[in-house]
Amino acid sequence: MDMSASYARKSPRAHGLWFLLVLLTASFLPAQTAAPQPPPTVVFMTDFGVIDDSVALCKGVMYGIAPNLRIVDLTHQVNAFSIADGARFLFGATPYFPAGTVFVVVVDPGVGSSRKAVVVKSKRGQFFVLPDNGLMTMVEDRDGIDGIREITNSDWTIGAKISSTFHGRDIFSPVGAHIARGDDWTQVGPEMRGLVRLNLKPAEVGDKGLSGEVIAIDGPFGNLITNISAEDFLKLGYQRGDRLKVTIAGHEVELPFAKTFSDVPLKQPCGV
Fold first, then answer.
1. Which domain does 209 fall in, by range?
2. Is residue 231 situated within a structural domain?
3. Mean predicted lDDT score pLDDT of the chain
4. Residue 51 sits in the same domain as residue 147
5. How far is the C-alpha of 157 from the C-alpha of 175, rounded, in Å?
6. Less packed terminus of the chain by CB within 10 Å, N or C?
7. How many Å from the N-terminal Cα to the C-terminal Cα in the chain?
8. 49, 77 contact by CB (below 8 A)
9. Domain-located, residue 146
10. Based on the structure, what is the number of domains in the chain?
11. Nearest CA to 54 among 170, 180, 160?
12. Do both 62 and 178 map to the same domain?
């Protein structure tokens, strides 16, 4: 018998066993699963403080609409009614969040008045649900605006129960949750052409140096925050270790241009 010919042909029974083995092997292969999608994100900022239930009520409204929502508290300690502080915090935070993030901002001294409630989409693809009172000024200047709509669709708000003084709960929170869960933001209301803007005075570089304004004090540390950008300051030609002559409210102070706070003795001023 030609042995090579006999090994080239499989018996019908052997072929059936081989086919069964293939099926059993295939049944144990791991299933292909799609990468998990991150939960929709709302970044929430107010001047409500945390002493009462206001923030929690707003979050409850949002979770009722989008139970899988992720809410990031930017801060609820904005100085009361300080639109300028709210605009500054938005400007500082937005570059660190991805496109699609929804910012719900309630710093609203004009609540219940003729001021508009709006949704704004920036050219970075982020959404802002807030009163039209100047909060978007700094973000608009840096990132640009892709669209603005006034909030008028009562299906997206609390409806007939809207309070005249708690739009954070009744308007901004539900609208923010609708957008975060993927509802079509253009359904919120009609288009608008422009936004209310803060009158921010820019820093100025002249023959005598650089002038600007102190716009805030940094939390518990006492740092003075100005509207002077690092780019403008570096135009003056100072290097680390140089002495700066700074005039604040008519008082001239000389201080070192340092890299960090530990470069100077405790309780001594520096420019960083």
1. 204-263
2. yes
3. 88
4. yes
5. 6
6. N
7. 94
8. yes
9. yes
10. 2
11. 170
12. yes
What is the identity of the amino acid at 37?
Q
Q: What percent of the chain has pLDDT over 90?
A: 59
Residue 42 in tokens:
């709302």
End-of-domain residue from the set 129, 159, 188: 188
Integer Cα distance of 45 and 99 in angstroms: 18
Read off the tokens for 11: 């018996």
- Taking the CA atoms of residue 44, residue 113, residue 196 and residue 202 in that order, the dihedral angle to the nearest 10 degrees is -80
Q: Is the pLDDT of residue 155 over 90?
A: yes
Closest CA to 100 of 69, 60, 141, 135: 69
Res 8 pLDDT > 60: no
Q: What is the pLDDT of residue 62?
A: 98
For residue 10, tell me if it sits in a domain: no
Same domain, residue pair 133 and 48: yes
Look at residue 7 and tell me whether its pLDDT is greater than 50. Answer: no
CB neighbour list of residue 194: distance below 8 Å, 6 or more residues apart: 148
Same domain, yes or no: 176 and 208: no
- Token readout for 259 is 């890299």
Say what the pLDDT of residue 27 is: 52
Any domain includes 36: no
